[in-house]
Amino acid sequence: MNGPTPPPGWQPELRTLWEAIMATQAQIDQYAAAVSGYATSVEQATTAIRADIQAIKDANPAVDTAGLEASLARLGTAADGLKALDTENPPATP
Which residue did the predictor score with more confidence, 3 or 28? Predict the structure, then answer.
């Protein structure tokens, strides 16, 4: 197992508990990394969509894009929320 090890001389039951806790931490670290990846994907998509909306507005100023822009703002808020969750669970340092 990677990472810290229990102190020498621990009883097998305590060692098993330690290993289970550390495995759980590794899973949490994986979830945090996945959340970070999702947030990055959402941010990239939001930037691309924002550019597409601007292109639509430039091509046809009469088109009302307010609803689309409002929905995009909500998506940005969701991405910010994902990033905030990830910063509460930074990856473990070796």
Answer: 28
Both tokens of residue 31?
């979830």
**Measured distance CA(20)–CA(90) in Å, rounded:** 20
Using the 8-state DSSP alphabet, how is residue 60 labeled?
A: -
* C-beta atoms surrounding 39 within 10 Å: 19
Q: Where are the alpha helices (DSSP H) in 1-94?
A: 12-59, 66-88
Q: Whole-number mean pLDDT of the chain?
A: 79
d(CA 75, CA 70): 9
Burial status of residue 62 (CB atoms within 10 A of its CB: 0-12, 13-18, 19 or more): exposed
pTM: 0.55
Please give the Cα distance from 7 to 67 (Å, whole number).
59
